[in-house]
Design goal:
Blueprint: E1 6-14, E2 17-22, E3 25-31, H1 33-43, E4 48-52, H2 57-73, E5 78-81, H3 87-96, E6 100-103, H4 105-109, H5 112-121, E7 126-134, E8 145-149, E9 154-159, H6 160-170, E10 174-179, H7 191-198, E11 205-208, H8 214-222, E12 227-230, H9 232-235, H10 241-250
Helix pairs in contact: 1-2, 8-10
């Protein structure tokens, strides 16, 4: 039995507004998060992801309010991340209406957080948000990819594939693999990176970073992505969720 490939719009939220840039730089306003989430729900999105890109104390408070308002109007699963540093943060967002929580920088700093969240709430709510890039000149890892933190601004030297494997062992239920090199460039997903991670993990893999046309979604699924996530192409009208799903369907991938 084939599992449907999910199409997931991603809303990067800063100070209560959706923003988007290229490689996480040059952020510009893209609209109200609740309005956009409602639009994507109507378009047939399978899930919606919110990422708090400011991740300040005020940002997290704003995010709880955004999640609560969205959960009242949208009936697809909500994943929320950004600035999640503790089990208490996870509990607060789940109570606000989130279905899943993604963790990134805090897990790199203290990997035990992943096990703590999985043990208390279950692996089904825990997503590893893995911001990875090809190793810069003069640096190397076994896979050729490294983990970055703080929205892709800080290099860690940690092998991205090895980190994904370790996180799954700690209880992560899904891996959101975001190519920092491709983010916002709209030139296609990094399929080599998808291949490298897909070979080593068995949990669902969400491909992120680089969507520019409907066919890009099908290509990511061809390389083993269980879900495909995008932001700019949906926010600024380059395509709809339905067009992305049609491309997947035409390529032989089941969709909802």
């Amino acid at each position: 039995m084939c599992v449907a490939v999910r199409v997931i719009p991603c809303l990067d939220v800063k100070d209560g507004r959706v923003v988007k840039g290229v490689n996480f730089q040059g952020l510009r306003d893209a609209g109200d998060p609740v309005e956009l989430a409602s639009r994507y729900d109507l378009q047939g999105a399978d899930e919606i992801t919110f990422l708090d890109v400011s991740a300040s104390a005020e940002g997290r408070a704003t995010m709880v309010e955004v999640v609560s308002r969205t959960a009242e109007q949208v009936f697809v699963p909500l994943t929320v991340g950004g600035g999640v540093r503790s089990v208490e943060d996870v509990d607060r967002l789940l109570r606000a209406g989130a279905d899943k929580i993604s963790v990134s920088t805090a897990a790199v700093a203290r990997s035990e957080l992943l096990a703590e969240v999985a043990q208390r709430f279950g692996s089904q709510v825990l997503v590893l948000s893995l911001d990875a890039r090809r190793c810069p000149q003069g640096a190397s890892t076994d896979s050729g990819y490294e983990v970055t933190t703080h929205g892709g601004t800080r290099s860690t030297g940690i092998d991205a594939v090895a980190w994904a494997v370790r996180a799954v062992g700690l209880g992560v239920g899904e891996v959101l693999l975001n190519s920092m090199d491709a983010d916002g460039v709209a030139d296609g997903f990094d399929t080599e990176m998808i291949d490298a991670v897909r070979r080593e993990i068995t949990v669902p893999l969400i491909a992120s970073g680089g969507a520019g046309k409907p066919e890009d979604f099908a290509e990511a699924a061809d390389h083993g992505a269980d879900a495909v996530l995008a932001a700019s192409v949906f926010h600024y009208g380059a395509m709809t969720v339905a067009q992305a799903k049609e491309a997947l369907r035409e390529a032989g991938h089941p969709v909802r």
